[in-house]
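Practice problem: TniQ family protein
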Amino acid sequence: MGSLRWPLHPQPGEWERLEDYIGRLAQAYGVGYDVFLRRALGRRGRGARDIEGAGFDEVAARLSAGTGVPVEQLRDMQGKHVMARLVERAHASAGTPGEQQAVDATREAVRYVLRRLGTHPSR
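Answer key — structure tokens:
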């Protein structure tokens, strides 16, 4: 699975997280998640599964080359970005003041957790 477009490359869903998309690609090829990480994305050793961390740029470049999905779209599939979009969508669709208050509280709770984990989208 070199730098040419891969023969199987299903497109990601609107709300699909990067990790889940990679799992779906592995399944399409009939291999396990870790095998796909190693063979298709060159991820080996300790930290191989940390696809959203320090090695994200390399993972995104290989995925983009193989699937045709733009790197920016892959970046938006990181868990922190999917969660942020989900909270924003919920906030925009909340109608009553009580619903707005509940969504605001949820948004703040998510931001708190993401900051504690060091994965807030603003970072």
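Discussion: The first helix runs from residue 18 to 28. Students who identified this feature from the tokens alone can consider the problem solved.
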